[in-house]
Amino acid sequence: MKKTGSPHGPKGLYEKTRRPFIHCCSVLACCLSLTPLTLKAETETIDKPTGIYSSSIGRGEALANEHALGALIRVKWNQLEPSPGAFNWALIEDQIDSMDDYSEGKLWSLAIIAGKESPQWLYDEADSFVINSMLGDVSIPKFWDLQVQLRLQDLALALAAEYGDDPRMSLVYLPQMTSNGVEGHFNGVPLSTLEAAGLTPDNWIEAVTTAATSFALALPSKAIAVEVHTVLADSAIAETIINRLWDDPALEQRVGAAMWWLSGKDSYQTELLAVLREYPGDLYAQVIGRSDQSDRFLDGDYASVFAQAKELGIRYIEPWERELTYHTHDLLLA
Q1: For the chain, what are the domain ranges?
Q2: Measured between alpha carbons, how far is 36 from 200 in angstroms, rounded to an integer?
Q3: 109 in helix, strand or coil?
Q4: Residue 269 DSSP one-character state
Q5: pLDDT-derived band at 135, boundaries 50, 70, 90
Q6: Among 10, 15, 130, 276, which residue's Cβ finds the most Cβ atoms within 10 Å?
Q7: Does domain 47-333 have CATH number 3.20.20.80?
Q8: Residue 214 φ/ψ, nearest 5 degrees
Q9: CA distance 202 to 80
């Protein structure tokens, strides 16, 4: 939980004002850079990923499948940045090496898992709240806490310094303060728990759009994806988030929406599916489960996933790693 400390004296004043001052300077720097970035975008197209990516890397065998154009690298934030400003980039490099053991030069997307996998030092700096999950009670930093936003901006800038010019990094998912740290949901958590923590439609919209903007401005040549679910039983929250980000001219239509629940069914999150059908921006997706989990797909048919993807205009799909490793449905992936 948040440390209180003493607000009095020169040292207290310094600690109280240091990070907001740094944040203001960073925002000013980003704002000053918007004009040249916008002019550049008129003559230079940002490469956004398309096609099939493995949803994970494992030992790398999935990348030997000719239909896999790339793979998703997943890292936990608390392992990537165990202390403030100290990064273990080997967690990413090792997965790239595993890809390259079975392929050459294939692209990768990145999901830095936040939520309960946020660093312990962030819990010391920011407010958090407890939810009940499959793992029992877990604590999650509040997305709308200013210190969380500042630290996410720091993370985005560090990622940009390390990989911002790497042409193989094709997509970055927004780390989110949610149940699993990437997907935008609190599935199974009572509304009363979220409301008691202070979560509201307005502060959630502001938190997600602010964090996504930090990543987009830090990574001006990369596509960003925000995974969306229905939050607080209201699909309008996700609708507002994705449309506000897509319509922001400063972000150059680089921030798209993602759904990690592509199933072929219309019965799950029906209202949000209707929103995504009308959404004018880029759509990225991950299949909801393995192909042998037939109950997760429309009429038990894995092919319905790809029919739904075509209907929604999804540009990028992550089947589970096993489909590519064991060639379970190569004809559907072609």
Answers
A1: 47-333
A2: 36
A3: strand
A4: S
A5: confident
A6: 276
A7: yes
A8: -60, -45
A9: 30
